[in-house]
Amino acid sequence: MAVAAAESPSAAGEREFRPRSTGRMFPWIKWASLAELAVFTALVVVWLAPGLEGPTSILGLLHGLGFVALCILIWVAVLRREVPFWLLASALTPVGPVGSSIGVSYIERKERRGAGDSESPDEMSIDPDPTAEAGARGFESAADTKSNV
Question: Domain extents for the chain?
Answer without folding.
Answer: 22-113
